[in-house]
Write a structure and sequence with these properties.
single chain; 3-stranded antiparallel sheet; 37% helix; elongated; disordered C terminus
C-alpha cells in the first residue's frame, strides 16, 4: 500500500508479480485501489485492476474507489474504474454515491462521466439529501452549469428537495433573480436564504 501511495508503479508491479494481493489494505483501513484512486495514480490503478483488485473494496466509512476518486476530482481514475465495471451507484456508509459527491464538489467532468455510465440521479443519502439540494451553496454560474449537465440525462422533476417553485410567467419578488439554462430550465436563487428551485419550461 505504501508503494501505491507513492504512485510507484515499478514497485507495485514487482510486488504484484511476487504474489502480493491487489486487495491489500493499509494500516488505516484503506484498500490499495482506494488509495490509488484518491491519489490519482492512474498507472498504479491500472496495475491493480489488471491483477484483479476488487472495484467494490471499501474503507472504514464505506467509500469505494469510485467515490473517493470523485471526491478528489480524479476524473481519469473515475473513467478507468467505470471501464473496469465499478458500480456507479455504490454508496458509502452515510448513503452518498459518487454522483452526490460530484454534486457537492461541483465537479462537472465527473458528473458527466457518472451520468453517461447510468448513475441514478434520484438517489438520496441517509439524510434524504439529493443531487439538487447540494446546489444551494453554489454560485449561480455553477448552478446553471450543473443543471445543464444533469438535464442532459433527462428531466429534473424528480430531483432534489427544492424550497420554492416558480412557474414560467410567475413574478418573483426582488430577493430572487432568475436565468434560463441551455437545457431550458429556469433557475432562481435567493441570495438571502440560499434556496434554489427549478421548473422545466420545455412543456
Amino acid at each position: 500500500v505504501k508503494a501505491t501511495d507513492r504512485g510507484d508503479a515499478y514497485n507495485v508491479g514487482r510486488l504484484l508479480s511476487g504474489g502480493a494481493s491487489p486487495n491489500a489494505v493499509g494500516p488505516q483501513g484503506f484498500p490499495a485501489l482506494v488509495r490509488a484512486a484518491a491519489k490519482g495514480h492512474v498507472a498504479v490503478l491500472d496495475q491493480l485492476l489488471r491483477a484483479g483488485a476488487n472495484t467494490e473494496a471499501r474503507d472504514k466509512r464505506g467509500n469505494t474507489a469510485i467515490i473517493f476518486a470523485t471526491s478528489k476530482g480524479q476524473s481519469d481514475c473515475v473513467r478507468r474504474l467505470l471501464e473496469a465495471g465499478a458500480c456507479v451507484d455504490a454508496t458509502s456508509s452515510d448513503g452518498n454515491s459518487a454522483l452526490l459527491v460530484a454534486a457537492v464538489t461541483q465537479d462537472l467532468k465527473c458528473l458527466r462521466l457518472l451520468l453517461r455510465a447510468g448513475a441514478d440521479r434520484t438517489q438520496r443519502n441517509h439524510k434524504g439529501v439529493g443531487v439538487l439540494d447540494y446546489m444551494d451553496s453554489a454560485t449561480l454560474d455553477s448552478m446553471i452549469a450543473m443543471t445543464d449537465v444533469l438535464s442532459s440525462a433527462g428531466p429534473l422533476t424528480s430531483l432534489g428537495s427544492l424550497g420554492k417553485t416558480v412557474l414560467p410567467g410567475q413574478e418573483c419578488d426582488e430577493m430572487w433573480h432568475g436565468t434560463t439554462t441551455k437545457a431550458g430550465v429556469a433557475i432562481v436563487k435567493s441570495q438571502r436564504f440560499k434556496q434554489s428551485t427549478e421548473q422545466s419550461i420545455l412543456g
